[in-house]
Amino acid sequence: MIVRIMGEGQVEIGSSDIDVLNALDTELEAAIETNDEDVFRSKLHALLEKVRQVGRALPDDSLEPSELILPPADASIEEVREMLGDTGLIPG
């Protein structure tokens, strides 16, 4: 799966990493629901860091279509809330 982190670039993640990312996504959603800014910030950073860690960075000139777009690390709760789908940021 090709994932774009807004403002950073694209990474390719394997299907075996989706469950771990979904768990972090669930924690992020819970922080958004409770409007807890500190927990939200922590969970957003943890999710993005895990994507960077398990993903393989694609070259900057790569034009692969992104299957998933994640917010930048400095996104607000409201910005991320608007990006949430029925299954959070990470489908599956």
From TrEMBL:
Q: Which InterPro entries match?
A: PspA-assoc_dom (IPR054437)
Every PspA-associated domain range: 1-92
What's the name of the protein? PspA-associated domain-containing protein
